[in-house]
């Protein structure tokens, strides 16, 4: 059963579309960052500022600072498989499959396949994109000014440390910091895909079920920013580099709470009778 749900989740047009959207958003952000060699520096000066355009800053810009990916992230996470309870019912597939296995096994297999599909759809293009970036962009960071009174020279992102959660790794272990962001994107996608699956157990319109997590994302972000708690926003939870006061507490507490509540929702709300209705 698990193998079949994996096949349906990962070998589908919806999963391919999610990967394409993620890749396009990443490419748009990278385009906004600029080419490997800065067009603002004269050729004879390039040896003085070799890291103004660099692989690490390019990734941060493409993933979060460019803006488009963080907007569509919740839709990308739920697109591959979160509405599959609904499509199984409307297509009659659930009647076929439950004649061959138990509802508990069917639900558990779908839960695992869905969270993995959501996590992969939000993280795999980032991993591939980072590999491509490292081929074309130089791997290094501009030097830190000797004294605070000096201005930054040849720095696109004049940072000693990146903003927020584990930002201190940006300068000392930039690859580790990038892989943390990619791993976080996987966990974030898995959590929101699980929220989408829980939603589809009581919203029986496919398109409403897919849009519901995105609306929750927007409303919660708007509310938290207006009450002065932006570091808890799911937007900055996805890309903590966007806000300076994010921390491991805000990032993993919120993400863990969403995943736990969504998991409980899937197993508490998704009953055989409800899915059939």
Automatic annotation (TrEMBL):
Keyword Membrane: yes
Keyword Transmembrane helix: yes
Keywords: Membrane, Transmembrane, Transmembrane helix
Membrane-spanning intervals of the chain: 58-83, 111-137, 176-198, 210-228, 248-269
Protein name: ABC transporter permease
Species annotation: Candidatus Cryosericum odellii
